[in-house]
Design goal:
Layout: H1 6-28, H2 31-52, H3 58-79, H4 83-92, H5 105-113, H6 120-130, H7 136-143, H8 147-163, H9 176-182, H10 185-191, H11 203-213
Helix pairs in contact: 1-2, 1-3, 1-5, 2-3, 2-11, 3-4, 6-8, 7-8
Length: 214
């Protein structure tokens, strides 16, 4: 059995957080459900993996655990006549949609984050949050604005994606060049300067894991 330390779990977080969130968003059609489920899965992994060893497929373990926890939570809420939970469960039971020209859940999510209905600065912040795993304080620091302001921007962006039914899909092939221009490194660098590297594991997730395992 291979023993793993904190840095190994942090490596998995850094490499797989964005993909896990993207897969869960596609499964349930809800950003908040996906984020919370993936964070819960890493919280479970933090005290377990040092004792049991790294799973053969850490990413698969995280995604499966997150999906199961999300389904359990939604079933409970659906039993209480929570319509939002019922809708998410219905979405999760649908057949997978056509893959389109790009077959990568993270790219699919990036196109959603870079939708023209969202301001460019919000596109960058949302991409850092959902795909980079940065915390709200870390993103606020990069943008040189108060944490509360950034938190409000992220909440409004998620609500707009939901309320406006912004699709979670890759644009049609003829539209890709124009859309990719909005997601290009030059457009991102014009929106923020000094953005921190994606942390090995976001401070909030790490501290939550330590509290849960302590």
């Amino acid at each position: 059995m291979v023993e793993i330390e904190g840095p190994e779990i942090e490596r998995v977080f850094r490499e797989e957080y964005g993909r896990a969130v993207a897969v869960l968003i596609r499964a349930f059609g809800d950003i908040d459900i996906a984020e919370e489920a993936v964070q819960d899965a890493f919280t479970v992994a933090a005290p377990r993996w040092p004792d049991t060893g790294l799973p053969p497929s850490p990413a698969g373990w995280i995604i499966t655990t997150a999906k199961n926890r999300a389904i359990d939570r939604l079933r409970l809420e659906a039993s209480l006549q929570n319509r939002h939970a019922q809708a998410a469960l219905l979405h999760a039971g649908r057949e997978p949609v056509d893959e389109g020209p790009v077959r990568d859940e993270r790219l699919r999510l990036m196109f959603t984050c870079c939708h023209p209905a969202l301001a460019q600065s919000v596109q960058v912040a949302l991409t850092l949050r959902l795909l980079g795993g940065l915390t709200t304080p870390e993103i606020a620091h990069a943008f040189l604005i108060p944490e509360a302001t950034m938190a409000q921007r992220l909440v409004r962006a998620k609500n707009k994606i939901r309320d406006a039914n912004i699709p979670y899909r890759v644009p049609d092939a003829p539209d890709l060049p124009a859309v990719c221009g909005r997601c290009s490194p030059s457009s991102i660098s014009s929106s923020t300067r000094g953005t921190p590297r994606a942390p090995a594991m976001s401070s909030s997730a790490a501290s939550c894991a330590r509290r849960r395992s302590g």
